[in-house]
Amino acid sequence: MNKYLLKLYITGNTVNSQRAIANLFRICHQELNDEYSIEIIDVLEQPEKAEQAKILVTPTLVKQLPPPLQRIIGDMSNTQKVLLGLDLINQDKN
Q1: CA-CA distances (angstroms) from residue 63 to 14, 15, 26, 39?
Q2: DSSP-assigned beta bridge partners for residue 10
Q3: Which among 51, 50, 69, 64 is positioned nearest to 10, based on CA atoms?
Q4: Count of other CB atoms within 10 angstroms of residue 15
Q5: What is the distance between the alpha carbons of residues 90 and 94, in angstroms, rounded to a whole number?
Q6: Which candidate among 8, 23, 54, 93 keeps its CA 20 to 30 Å from the CA of 74?
Q7: Residues with Cβ within 8 Å of residue 30, at least 6 apart in sequence
Q8: pLDDT tens string 7-27
């Protein structure tokens, strides 16, 4: 079982969406080894999932596991922000 369950909400095949996907996979590969599962959810194709998760802005990353639930908004280019949101670093290390 994967330690991290991540859901990335995007809007279509835009540059921003592609950047968020690439950055997220890069960070996970570097920091989480094989202990993660990523689900990409296109809000244009699955609006009900976005509505259920209360997604208002894309791209948005939702860390479901391990608790607590965290949300990170943006293209995931700020590695420190993503690591902080995944609880891989402490806030005072920034």
Answers
A1: 22, 22, 16, 11
A2: 42
A3: 50
A4: 8
A5: 8
A6: 93
A7: none
A8: 999 999 999 999 999 999 999
Residue type, 45: E
Ordered by start, the domain boundaries in the chain are 4-93
Q: Is the dihedral of CA 60, 43, 37, 33 positive or negative?
A: negative
Of 75, 68, 72, the closest CA to residue 83 belongs to: 72
% of residues, the chain, pLDDT over 90? 85
Among residues 22, 23, 14, which one has the least CA distance to residue 42? 14
* Sequence-ordered list of residues with C-beta below 8 angstroms from that of 71, at least 6 positions apart, any chain: 60, 61, 62, 63, 85
The mean per-residue pLDDT over the stretch 57-85 comes to 95
Query: What topology is assigned to 4-93 in CATH?
Result: Glutaredoxin (3.40.30)
